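Design a sequence for this backbone.
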């Protein structure tokens, strides 16, 4: 892993879902010894995808928190090894006079001659009755020419407010905190941006963010401070279209506030135009070190619920299911943070990176090397840690039935106590609930006897019937099938299965009676609290049970 300080910026609804995948990579332990600054950036403060990603990070931090040490500390070779610091900024379009471009830009102020010039230049670039008047609260609605200007304006406005020190909003303070940490490390920063190029907020922001952040520092400091962003290492996803939704009808677009609504039928064209821009724009090529082109080259997945009458423009109801392209975007961040090639050359143009995956019988077939590559056995490390975390999730949710409200991790600790591993009894019920709840987000849960797929189940569903590292039997979704699950046989390849059970015993029993007793936490894992030692102990026991992946 790089010695640079790591920063992640998630932009727009798609960026938030990519951040969800990134957080789960941190959960399985892919970012050892790292304290990562995470900024969520959006126009839609109430967006459901944004709320879900932010709550997942809060839950992650509760799992790591011990006493007054909120969010814990970085660890190594264990689950939840990275420390995540969440910062939240959104452009505020809720106040009076800020609802749309026409009001926000104040084109009707000033002397008549100035008003006429304002209107002429606005009308030249922005449609008068639609683009200038739609409600900005739910984002830029695929109007990237408008969005780039307004996102830049929002960040500059925040810097000016902070410089004045008057009526600074909480979200502006959060942005200021993030920027202070970026300014502190300067050229020793790696900044990765998660977002799409086919929609509104992410597509609008990726080109202008580095410049906007640089200007933020200048304005906030009154010109006394600056960062040479040619030396700061920026990377980003160029995520093209991979989902569709209901086409908005004329009735929904009948009011000025909803006169513009994103139409997914234009996403392929938007993606093509965006890629042409990123290929040719000299500022982008000089600002970014690496750009990751990620897409879905077959029919895009429909994300609407059956029977939904309106197109969701944003807000709390916008909660799209997870997709494997978002996991690949998170893995792109991993590649960028571990990459050595070209990182110290401030004169080189951006490198454009893409990945190919086997496509056979109209399905993709993913192996563990397809996600993070195989340099320094990164693929095996990824598979080992994801498999171990998935096994522990099933121990909590399936074996000890946390998915249906039973004890989960508390039940597993009780089982450890029966093997005279009593050192973890002091972990509180609240702490156990946090761990159980994280696994519910990661894998699955039940609500009123209805099966609710979590992140990993949703990721796998976008690939099915193609292969995804694990055996299809590792993803049961009924109570009867879950009861039959063997948590030690999740991988498709039998050589990664846990040792077979003894007579009258299964793999899980053998794991508890043999492997848990043999293992313990290690000094190099840098764990100090009881929870950290518990996680490190279990991590060691499960990964050793999958020993073929560590050879």
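Sequence:
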């Amino acid at each position: 892993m790089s010695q640079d300080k790591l920063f992640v910026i998630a932009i727009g609804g798609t960026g938030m879902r990519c951040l969800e995948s990134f957080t789960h990579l941190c959960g399985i332990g892919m970012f050892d010894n790292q304290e990562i600054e995470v900024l969520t950036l959006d126009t839609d403060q109430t967006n459901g995808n944004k709320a879900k990603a932010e709550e997942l990070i809060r839950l992650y931090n509760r799992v790591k928190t011990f006493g007054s040490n909120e969010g814990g500390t970085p660890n190594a070779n264990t689950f939840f090894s990275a420390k995540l610091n969440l910062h939240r900024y959104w452009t505020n379009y809720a106040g009076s006079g800020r609802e749309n471009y026409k009001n926000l830009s104040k084109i009707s102020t000033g002397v008549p001659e100035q008003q006429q010039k304002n209107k002429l230049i606005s009308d030249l670039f922005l449609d008068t009755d639609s683009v200038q008047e739609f409600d900005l609260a739910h984002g830029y609605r695929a109007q990237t020419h408008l969005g780039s200007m307004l996102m830049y304006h929002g960040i500059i406005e925040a810097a000016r407010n902070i410089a004045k020190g008057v009526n600074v909003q909480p979200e502006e303070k959060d942005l200021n905190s993030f920027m202070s940490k970026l300014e502190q490390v300067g050229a020793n920063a790696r900044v990765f941006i998660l977002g799409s190029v086919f929609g509104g907020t992410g597509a609008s922001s990726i080109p202008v963010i580095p410049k906007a952040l640089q200007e933020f520092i200048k304005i906030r400091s009154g010109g006394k401070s600056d960062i040479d962003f040619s030396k700061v290492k920026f990377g980003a996803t160029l995520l093209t279209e991979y989902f569709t939704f209901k086409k908005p009808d004329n009735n929904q677009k009948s009011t000025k506030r909803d006169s513009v609504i994103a139409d997914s039928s234009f996403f392929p064209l938007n993606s093509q135009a965006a890629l042409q821009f990123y290929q040719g724009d000299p500022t982008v090529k000089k600002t970014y070190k690496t750009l990751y082109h990620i897409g879905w080259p077959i029919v895009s997945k429909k994300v609407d619920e059956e029977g939904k009458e309106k197109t969701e423009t944003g807000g709390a109801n916008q909660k799209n299911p997870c997709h494997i392209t978002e996991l690949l975007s998170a893995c792109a961040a991993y590649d960028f943070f571990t990459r050595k090639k070209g990182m110290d050359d401030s004169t080189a143009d951006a490198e454009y990176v893409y990945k190919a995956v086997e496509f056979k019988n109209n399905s993709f077939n993913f192996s563990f090397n397809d996600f993070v590559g195989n340099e320094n056995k990164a693929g095996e490390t990824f598979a080992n840690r994801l498999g171990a975390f998935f096994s522990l999730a099933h121990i909590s949710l399936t074996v000890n039935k946390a998915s249906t409200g039973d004890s989960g991790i508390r039940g597993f600790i009780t089982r450890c106590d029966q093997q005279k591993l009593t050192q973890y009894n002091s972990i509180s019920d609240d702490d156990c609930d946090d761990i159980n709840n994280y696994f519910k987000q990661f894998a699955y849960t039940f609500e009123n006897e209805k099966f609710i797929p979590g992140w990993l189940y949703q990721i796998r569903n976008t690939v099915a019937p193609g292969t995804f590292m694990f055996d299809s039997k590792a993803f049961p979704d009924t109570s009867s099938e879950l009861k039959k699950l063997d948590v030690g046989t999740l991988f498709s390849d039998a050589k990664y299965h846990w040792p077979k059970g003894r007579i009258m015993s299964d793999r899980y029993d053998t794991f508890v009676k043999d492997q848990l007793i043999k293992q313990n936490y290690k000094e190099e894992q840098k764990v100090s609290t009881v929870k950290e030692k518990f996680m490190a102990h279990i991590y060691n026991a499960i990964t050793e049970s999958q020993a073929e992946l560590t050879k």
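The two ends are 20 Å apart (CA to CA).
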